[in-house]
Each structure stands twice: as C-alpha cells, then as structure tokens.
Amino acid sequence: MTAGLLPEEFIEGIKGRSPLSRLSIICLIGYLLSSPFSISVSQIFIFTGIGSWLVSLRLEGRPSGFHLPLWRPIALLVALTLISASFSDDPFRSLKDAKQLFQILIFYFALNTISSEREALWLVKALLAAAAVASVFTLGVAFMQPIGLENRMSGFFSIYMTLGGYLLISGAMGISYLIISEKISNKGWAGAASIVIIAALMSTFSRNAWIGFGAAALCAALAARSIKGVVLIASLAVLVLVFSPASVRDRIFSIGDMKDPSTRERVFMWKSGMEMVRDRPLLGTGLNMIKRTYTRYAHPEAMKKHTSHLHNNLLNIAAERGIPGLLAWMWFMGAFFAAALRRLKGYGESGFEKRYLSVAGLSAITGFFIAGLFEYNYGDSEVVMLAYFAMSLPFMGARETGSTGGG
Q1: Which residues in the chain come in under a pLDDT of 50?
Q2: Tell me, what's the pLDDT at 3?
Q3: Long-range contacts of residues 323-328, Cβ cutoff 8 Å, at least 24 apart
Q4: Per-residue pLDDT tens digits for 286-335
Q5: What is the DSSP secondary structure assignment for residue 61, as one 8-state letter?
Q6: Residue 282: CB partners within 8 Å, gap ≥ 6?
Q7: pTM of the entire predicted model
Q8: Residues in Cβ contact with 108 at an 8 Å cutoff, skipping those fewer than 6 apart
Q9: Alpha carbons 248 and 324: distance in angstroms, whole number
Q10: CA 32 to chain centre
C-alpha cells in the first residue's frame, strides 16, 4: 500500500505511463483527494489534468481505448446553451457564465484516463477516504454546538447545500460498495465510511440531499438485485429515525409538509419559474439571468422577491435555456441511464469491479437527479464536478463495442 490508499501495483501502473498520461492520472487523484476540502485546489488539479490529457491527444494521438459516449446529446446541450446565452438580455454575462460547460470535460477526461476497472476502484476508494475524513471533521464541529436548523453544517464548503450534494454522491458510491462487495474486510471499511458520511449528511439538514440519498441507496440495491441490500437500507433508515436528535427527526417529518415555510417558498418559486418558461419558451432568459428577471415574476405571497435560481433543475434549465435546452439535458440524462443499465445487464454475474462501477454510477446520478427536483444542484460547481466523475464510472475500463453516441 501507498499512504494506505493506493496499492503498489497502482503506483507502478502510473509509472509505466507516458509523462502526460502520468500527469493526467496524478491530477485526477489530486482532484478526488482535495474535492471535499478546497474548490480552488480541486479545480486546479482537475483542469490541469484535463489540459494535459488534451495536449496528449494532440501530441500522442488517440489511444486505442479512446471513447466518447453520449456525445450527441452533450453536443446538442452545449449548442443550445450557447445559443440561449447569445440571445439573452445580457449576452456578455451569459456567455461568461457558459464556462460551466467546460465541466462536462471531466466526464470524458476521467473515463479515458482510467485504463482498467481496478484503477477506477482504487480512485473510488481514495474519494471515499477523503469524504470520510471531511465527514469526521464536520461531525466534530457539529457536536460542539446545538444540532439544529440554526447550526447547519457546511464542512469545508461555503454552504450546507453544497456539502449535502457532495456527500449524497460520495455516500451513494459508499453504500453501493457495501451492498455489492462480498468480502467482509471490504464491507467493514465501506460500512465505516458510509456511516460517517451519512451522519455528516444528516447534519446539513438538507432535505433534498436526504431524499436523493434515499433514492440512490434504493437504486443501488435494485440495480444489484440484492434483497440484503434492501434490508440494509431499511435498517439504516430505522437507525436514523431512532438515534437522530429530535431536530433531525422533526426535519425528516417536515418533508412534504405544505405548511413548512421553506416548502411553500419552493412552490412559489416553481410557479414563478413556469411563468418565466411560458414567456420565453424557446431560448429562455439566458444563463445567470434569473436573478435579474425573477423580481417581476415573484409570487405575491413569496417571502423572497429575489433569487438566483429556482430550486429545481428542470425548471431552472428550462427558464434559462428554453424548452429545447431542457429536452437536450433530459436526453443526456436518459442516454446515460440507458447506457449504464445496458452495460450492467451485459456484465451479468461477472467480476465485482465491473458490476460495482455501473451500480455506483447509476446510484450516484439517480440521487443527483432526484435531489435536483428540489434544489438547483446542476448549478453547484463542486457537486456537478463530482457528478460528472460518478457518471464516468460505468464507462471506465473495458469499452463497449457498439456506439453510445446517443445512448
């Protein structure tokens, strides 16, 4: 082992790469280890890695395993986003905000940098170790003060919503490992990591992330066709309800309560968002324009007359990029799920690594998608960057023989 995270064989594999390829995978590891601690450091790692990968393609040519799955819906989404930004009320600001499209490169960078399922598995272990350390820190801070809505934990992030979204995705990878692995030793460390991640997730009081994680865990059990997994999830839910502080239980039971102020506020935002879509259905307002236009659409009973997003991915994308942009994004999501499910089905009862990567990707993106029905997590860079990494997992290692351009 090296630093308890990466085995000697993994390190030797890195040494055997070309200089640019070696830099790419080192940067990917650096991103995963730094992602829960610093957005600046993690972005330096990931975009340096992407840069070295692109230069290697130019200088060394495409390797035999070069792969561009889902490129058709992604290309359409990028094109429609740029068109919408160009015709917004403030094209300069919208086009500047369109730099978020570069995050999509994380998907292709990760899946083309990793050459085997075993390499991918060790990267996931490194990520879970980093997420567990950040979660332990978060819990340490949480236990030093009253646990409640007035003290929502944000860890090393700027806001609790971001921490919730990050832990949702990393927790989905952990619970998937726990469900699929048959080795007691693996279940031990995966279970320990999952427990601290779930506990830290509860301390954010982010209900969208809680719902998303529940959906992710259930997806992992169903995708793995594991009855034991369903029992495990039910047991964890009971433990959370029994041992959580009263403030956490009250927050759980407030889910779906239309008398809850924040729930009512979201409903008002969604109504305003639908009016925005009706007014500009083709191209939307343009990126970063909701904060400028929301005031005139604000519901009379809404407490907030200003907002930068609509707490819903589907409505936010439709309002900013128009209905065609939303359809392109939905095609992208649907193509991913179809391709990942097809790969999982094709693996049958094959090795743990292949099945795990598909299940972990499906679980994490299911949680991301469901949480995004109640929060605009597609606009949260820290969360989206990790989501693109999770999305790449089913495509790592062995390549499909058929085209997955459109899923």
Answers
A1: 1-4, 400-403, 407
A2: 43
A3: 323/277, 323/281, 323/282, 324/80, 324/282, 325/77, 325/80, 325/81, 325/84, 325/284, 328/73, 328/76, 328/77, 328/80
A4: 999 999 999 999 999 888 889 999 999 999 999 999 999 999 999 999 99
A5: -
A6: 322, 323, 324
A7: 0.94
A8: 67, 68, 392
A9: 40
A10: 13
